[in-house]
Specification:
This protein has four helices and twelve strands. By secondary structure, it is α/β, with parallel strands linked by helices.
Amino acid sequence: MNLIVAADANWGIGKDNKLLVSIPADMKFFRTTTTGKVVVMGRKTLESFPGGLPLKNRVNIVLTRDKNYRAKDAVILHSVDEILKEVEKYNTDDVYVIGGDSVYKQLLPYCRKAHVTRIDFAYEADTYFPNLDQMPQWKVTERSGEQTYFDIEYEFLTYERTE
């Protein structure tokens, strides 16, 4: 499994169930990377999408503790074990964890690659991604070099699990 995330200088990823900032190149990278693939997310992440609808042209898998939760065109599961069993149906390289923070934390141990858009600014955030730079088993294997969008500086990083 892979994961994809945009994180600020403090590894913040969101506030009030919204992204901290919208960078067109990051949105395009997300779309290009995940279209035609499998995306795994939590209920609140699904509900943050326009109309609360699953992403088009992807298999949407939603993790929620709510046994009565339903979402049109999404696979609803209730545990990490159920997620791991469901994603066995797909090529592991085609599965992307896309948030939110608790889903990232629960599934990080099962991911081999992390696509991180690192934003060089600390926003006010209420949700965070684990700091991969402090985890010896994760190493940066690719970096885009600095990009800018107006006054926002960021770069695309690929981290890979080394053990």
